[in-house]
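re the bet — no i am not wrong, look at it urself. input seq straight from the record:
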Amino acid sequence: MVEIIKQNFRKNKELFKSIQKQLQKDLDEKIQIEHVGSTAIPNMYGKNIIDILIGAEDNKEFNNIRDILEKHNFHSSEKSKSNIYQFFASTTDETKSGDIHIHLVMKETQKYKDFILLKDYLLNNKKKAKKYSDFKRNLIKDNITEREEYKKVKSEYVSRMIKEARNKNYKIDN
């Protein structure tokens, strides 16, 4: 069952920095670790799960990062695994508030670029961020609380936002 709460941006940013610092000890210093997802955006409602993006330059680096994440007790999902993407979670149970999701992505792919694009788009467009936050709250109000249905409907909305953000003429509306 999906629960949506008002996320504490400052607290989540501190948690991200702590995780980043732990991982950076074992990763090459040139590897960027990015805070993405709704916890990286101020004043958002969401599931309060810290989403982290790590980009790999090549297959060797991808596999090395994967091994390091597993050493740090992040659990990989076989169903999401591809040659450009691997999903990791801090728990094998259904995720809940305070959990951590790591998205390991080949850096030169559209998937990687879309994570960054969406974050920048929402940070620079407060009205769009509020609309997205309200959309998630309304899903719960409309009784879309089962995880798979929630993910499907939210994913469609996010895909539309990414397409909009890709449009070179998107307007920053702070």
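see?? The domain at 5-166 is CATH 3.30.460.10 (Beta Polymerase; domain 2). told u. also Strands lie at 5-6, 33-36, 45-46, 50-56, 75-76, 85-89, 100-106. so pay up
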